[in-house]
Amino acid sequence: MKRVLVITGGGDCPGLNAVIRAIVKRASQEKEWEVIGSIQAFNGILWEPTEIKVLDEKTVAGIHYRGGTILETTNKGGPYAWPVKNTDGTWGTVDRSEEMIRKINYLGINAVINIGGDGSQQISQQLFEQGLNVIGVPKTIDNDLSATDATFGFQTAVQVATEAVDKLVTTAASHNRILILEVMGRDAGWIALHAAVAGGADICLLPEIPYDVNEVLEKIEERFVKDRGFAIIVIAEGAKPKGGTVSEIDSKEVGYKNRRYGGVAAALREQLQDAGCKHDMRETVLGHLQRGGIPVAYDRVLATQYGTKAFEMVLDGEFGHMVSYRHPDIISVPLKEAIMHYNTVQEENYLMKAARGIGISFGDKLE
Questions:
Q1: Rounded to an integer, what distance in angstroms lies between the CA atom of residue 192 and that of residue 113?
Q2: How far is CA 133 from CA 122, 128, 214, 238, 308, in A?
Q3: In sequence order, what are the beta bridge partners of 284?
Q4: How far apart are CA 264 and CA 248, in angstroms?
Q5: What CATH number has the domain spanning 2-152+295-327?
Q6: In principle, which of 58, 111, 247, 283 could form an S-S bond with 265, CB 3.0–4.6 Å?
């Protein structure tokens, strides 16, 4: 019996369970294959005792519409930065990758399917270079992987953010207020851009375009006549003012190395007040609401295609590659290519042009 190990790493994402289900259902067509899953990414392999589970059709029945992941996940530590406590009480890290690969081989695992975002796929590439048979599946609500046209989970996050804009419009109009919605995306503004266009926001502030608070204020004033009016601002968590820095929160979590963004909406409100804005302002932070819940149909379909393709790549021995959507096809691309470039919003993107065309301000002034 051959074995494939399934990993879900990094932040959770709507559609993860649909990928797991598709892998298992496709593998069930090949009688000599067994699918197992590691709990909390690679932690399940590295822990003592090992924490893995057999994934069969009964295990995955009906999980395609559930959010999160039945395998759990983590964005702390990992095989190359395993947290260890030093004798002086401080925390450090050790590289346990070789030990983990030996353990995977000992368990009779023939291939690993690693479902994750940019950080997870960088780990995939490193493990492949060390001789592990690994295949990547792109997962992120941020849509920041450049080697694929889309990542599952993104459309669900956009839907959540758009519904929030829709709700904020009614209360903003009722109170003649400026409402600021902070959305996720890290250093890519895709969620903010799509939600702003779909929800009809007046202003959209992105990580890719440092904003001028005076330009933002000018757009706001266009929306008010004798203090009557309202404005909706969608701001990505990685946005920053010209000459300023990203709003970050210090994280004390052991093993967490990502920059933790937060507070950009409140910072913008203060900047607008300092610039002379006299209108009432409130901010709303969506936070992890964007990560959770039932995936929309688009993400379920894309995730199912990814899971099916990933197992077929195992059968074909396409290790060191990642599943990719290149419209209208589901293909594979080298992991090196997948992690080479970060997918950010570019000015020439047609959605950017459409957004500017309908009057959305990005807090800048185009010459």
A1: 30
A2: 14, 6, 53, 35, 17
A3: 181
A4: 8
A5: 3.40.50.450
A6: 283
Q: How confident is the model at residue 341 (pLDDT cuts 50, 70, 90)?
A: confident
Hey, is 150 helix, strand or coil?
A: coil
Residue type, 151: T
CA angle, 72 then 77 then 81, to 5°: 150
Domain ranges of the chain: 2-152+295-327, 154-291+346-357
Please state the pTM of the whole predicted model.
Answer: 0.92
Q: Which of 142, 187, 202, 299 is catalytic?
A: 142
Name, in order, each residue with C-beta under 8 angstroms of 95's C-beta and a sequence gap of 6 or more.
79, 80, 81, 82
**How would you classify residue 268: left for phi > 0, otherwise alpha for psi between -120 and 50, otherwise beta?**
alpha
pLDDT-derived band of residue 52, with 50, 70 and 90 as boundaries? very high
Amino acid at 298: Y
Topology of the domain covering 154-291+346-357: Rossmann fold (3.40.50)
Q: How far apart are CA 281 and CA 238, in angstroms?
A: 20
Type and span of the H or E element at 271: helix 264-274
142 is catalytic: yes
Asked if the domains 2-152+295-327 and 154-291+346-357 are classified in one and the same CATH topology, the answer is yes
Using CA atoms, how far residue 44 sits from 21, 53, 133, 255, in Å, is: 19, 9, 18, 16
pLDDT at 176: 93
Backbone angles phi, psi at 83, to 5 degrees: -65, 135
Residue 317, number of CB atoms within 10 A of its CB = 11
Reading phi first (left if > 0) and then psi (alpha if -120 to 50, else beta), residue 136 is in beta
Neighbour-count burial of 66, counting CB atoms closer than 10 A to its CB (0-12 exposed, 13-18 middle, 19+ buried): middle
Cβ(19)–Cβ(115) below 8 Å: yes
Q: Which amino acid is at 175?
A: H
- If you average pLDDT over residues 167-181, what whole number do you get? 95
Helix (H) / strand (E) containing 23: helix 16-27
